[in-house]
Amino acid sequence: MKDKRIQIGWFLALMLLAASGCHKDWDAHYTVALETVNENVWDALQKDPEVSLFMGFLKEFHYDTLFLTDNAYTLFIPVNQALQAHLDTGEITTSFLNYHISSQFIQPNAVKGKLKIQTLEEKFALLEYGSQAVMFDGIEITFESPLFLNGKYFRMKNVAIPKHNIYEYIAQNNPILKKYIDDLDSVALNKELSRPIGFDEHGNTIYDSVSVVINRFEEKYFPVKHEFRNKTATLVFPKLDNYNQALDVMAEALGVPYHGHADIPYEWQKEVLIPQLLNQGIFENMLEETDFMKKNEKDTVKLKNILGDSIHIFYSPVEKSICSNGYAYDYAQFTIPDTLYMTSSVFEGEWLLRPTGINKNSWKDSVVVVSDQSFQPVKEFLATASNDSILKVNFPKKYAGRYKLQFKTKSLFPRKYLMVIKTHMDIGGIYDIYVNGRLVRTFDYYDYVRNRGIYFSVTGSKVLPVGRFNIIDCWVDNITSYQKAEIRLEYKGPGNAPNNGLVIDCIEFRPESDL
Length: 515
Hints:
The protein is of the alpha+beta class. It has eleven helices and 34 strands. It has three domains: 41-156, Roll (FAS1 domain), CATH 2.30.180; 226-337, no CATH class; 345-514, Jelly Rolls (Sandwich), CATH 2.60.120. The longest helix has 29 residues, at 2-30.
């Protein structure tokens, strides 16, 4: 028992000694104040000769009143030499000064990697804390002041120019993409701000409407016009010169009537090229050039785009621009794959339908049908079809009435095509086929029976059936500009076809030069 008391006594003695030592360290750390702790940061700045030029502009624009309050500010100040160099080509504005001041208290050693800080300009700047240096928008910070009564300041090697957001970058570097984005503005009802005032005859709510403009590009991809602290994106898109040079090469490949980038239709760029580039060039977060690089020659680079799709990267981004809401890059070398404009164009039959219920469909508004009787179009799923489904319309056997189906395909470049309709050999009749108002083929489905399923193409080749499917083809040479082909299928009678009606799996336009 006595030994136990001795052990407890020693333990208490050690605890008292430790407490005494801690008290000494505590006093040393907290009771000896730095000379600058109780000094206003404004007064300290006026004593620093390295930033006197910047201070002169703060006084000229009456920024001294900011520091008469207890609010804390962090200033990122370019040294005199850097500011003088800027004055040779630029000017000092309140926007410029605001961008170098933040109402947040910033401690760089508390930053892990990258931090977006909001400036008085209400734009976000990028602060990076690395092993070698601290950077403000990519500019090295050379000096960090102690903490003053109402803030602190940093000295920088260069001036920081307020960063564009990604939309402003686009407006400056590729007006074609800007137009694409602007064209996607639409007006929508804001139900939160709108007031319900009654009901119409169908029971729908009537609102005293308040409308808002939404942009479908920003809804789908990223709000490029807006800035956030924790939300960024990376855009890789060719600048205008790069973009136009690629269009020049494309125009040369297409030939007459295309002679240069100005001749390539904007409609094609809007429908095909730009969506392709966006799907391959918008990513979440700020990606560095190294994220796009192969580890070795045999590797392929795959990244997840902002839509969540995994894509292969076949380009090298260059000229990184730090934006207030992300990064933007140009292409090192931009070319347009000829698969986007030199190969076949396929139009699926089921694209003419819209669903109206379970296993029920109707024609889209753009489709014109003239018929003596009403026939329900059917979308039938079929594993061997070009897109897993076909369009089918069944007539009564030996139907002799009228039936005309007219619709438009996707837009096509002007050239000669082999138009190929994939259809069912056992459901048809006698049809006249028109393209842009011109009769290009009359076909009797009984020919499949006569020729035992073999089809004799207009090219001179024999086409064997695939199951009970085969083709009808014809030459089309009356597409004279970039336009949609208008197709009309006109039923002339039942003929001797086994069953009457119409089946379209797909319609393919094959360029003559590609055959």
